[in-house]
Write a structure and sequence with these properties.
Helix content: 40-55%
Strand order of the largest sheet: 1-2
Largest sheet: 2 strands, parallel
Number of domains: 1
Structural class: mainly alpha
Order of helices and strands: HHHHHHHHHHEHE
Bound molecules: zinc ion
Number of helices: 11
Radius of gyration: 20 Å
Number of strands: 2
Oligomer: single chain
Distance between the termini: 57 Å
Strand content: under 5%
Mean pLDDT: 87
């Protein structure tokens, strides 16, 4: 059984190498630095030295620690589930089972994307409105939105989101191979969303989340608070009343109240420190600020 777990983790690309991390970082820099220079949302965006090194440290910490631990934890969740259900965990796990797994891989991949994004919408929204916000606040901590800031993610945030997405999809019978096919493209897309790019995808902004759309999620401007939770497809925000589509730029980013410190260790400990406080932090507008629920879908042409 442990051998099977290791094989599954290897096939799921959960065991990283420093070389691969460096290569990914280099590839992203080669693509995104020129794009941010050519199509900046904010020209000459000042990035403080401390912020730059914190962002950079997440680029190593995230794949080498966060993702390894959360993928291993998800594998252990499966191990427990399979034991409880009396199923055997072997390499056939990667093929899926039942009618879902008999569809072509590309069709499974599209269905998985839709289901995973729907689940992500609700887990993301839950992170914003519950005491779990303090874990998600780490992702919202950058005050300058650049591609390098995209990897800020607390390990607890990563584990909860990943488990909520992967467990139902596997239990439905989908082949994890289909999901693994699209993961690199999704990772690139998510990094692109956090870039300092002025792209809003024109008419396609209703179909795919754009960098501008996601900046309205990260803003601390009152009109954008708790809007645009969708990671890939804005349809979820439209359906559930949280879409916000202005064509202009938000003015500021970060965390409104008690922002996390600008250090890796400080950010990792931040949620646990805050949990001891009597009054939970909130991303909700405080007294005197406008309510975030004034409209369901807002769009400016
Ligand atoms: Zn968020
Ligand atoms: Zn984000």
């Amino acid at each position: 059984m442990p051998d099977t777990l290791v094989t599954i983790l290897q096939r799921a690309d959960a065991i990283p190498s420093l070389g691969k991390v460096l290569l990914t970082l280099l590839a992203m820099a080669v693509i995104l630095v020129p794009l941010e220079y050519l199509f900046p949302a904010r020209p000459n965006l000042p990035v403080r030295r401390k912020t730059f090194f914190l962002n950079l440290s997440y680029w190593f910490f995230n794949p080498l620690f966060t993702q390894v631990t959360s993928k291993t934890a998800v594998a252990l969740v499966f191990l427990g589930l399979f034991l409880a259900l009396g199923w055997t965990l072997d390499e056939s796990f990667l093929d899926g089972f039942g009618p879902m797994s008999r569809q072509p891989l590309w069709l499974q991949a599209i269905e998985i994307l839709l289901i995973a994004d729907f689940i992500d919408y609700w887990t993301h929204r839950w992170f914003h409105v519950s005491r779990a916000w303090r874990f998600h606040a780490i992702h919202h901590s950058p005050e300058e939105m650049t591609w390098l800031a995209s990897s800020r993610m607390h390990p607890v945030n990563d584990f909860i989101t990943r488990t909520c997405q992967v467990v139902p999809i596997v239990l439905m019978g989908f082949s994890p191979k289909a999901a693994l096919l699209v993961v690199p493209y999704i990772v690139f897309f998510v990094i692109l969303l956090h870039s300092n790019l002025n792209w809003d995808f024109g008419p396609l902004r209703w179909v795919f989340v754009s960098p501008l759309y996601h900046r309205w999620h990260h803003t601390t401007d009152p009109e954008g608070i708790d809007k645009n939770f969708a990671g890939l497809f804005p349809i979820w925000d439209v359906l559930f009343g949280t879409a916000h589509f202005p064509r202009r730029e938000p003015t500021r980013f970060g965390v409104n109240h008690n922002p996390p410190p600008e250090s890796l260790l400080g950010q990792l400990l931040y949620p646990f420190r805050k949990l001891t406080h009597q009054h939970p932090e909130s991303h909700q507008p405080q007294e005197g600020e406008p309510s975030e629920n004034q409209s369901s879908v807002t769009s400016e042409q």
